[in-house]
């Protein structure tokens, strides 16, 4: 098992000082995606446009992965219809 650290940039960076022990990088990526989705879901439910990023670090502090999501809500006046 390896310890991975998940820093969240969601209107300011929150650095993970504890980390999470996971079997491999694939599971760390899945964990980072869930964290980013949770942040994005909160912003969307509050009606806010925002970008969210989760950086994954190894125990040496090297960034090994970054997940970025952008949340945008458009009202009917600014939305573009899908092509048929």
UniProtKB/TrEMBL annotation:
Instruction: Name the domain of life.
Output: Bacteria
Q: Which organism is it from?
A: Methylobacterium soli
Q: Which residues form the DUF6894 domain?
A: 3-70
UniProt-recorded name of the protein: DUF6894 domain-containing protein
Xref: Pfam families = DUF6894 (PF21834)
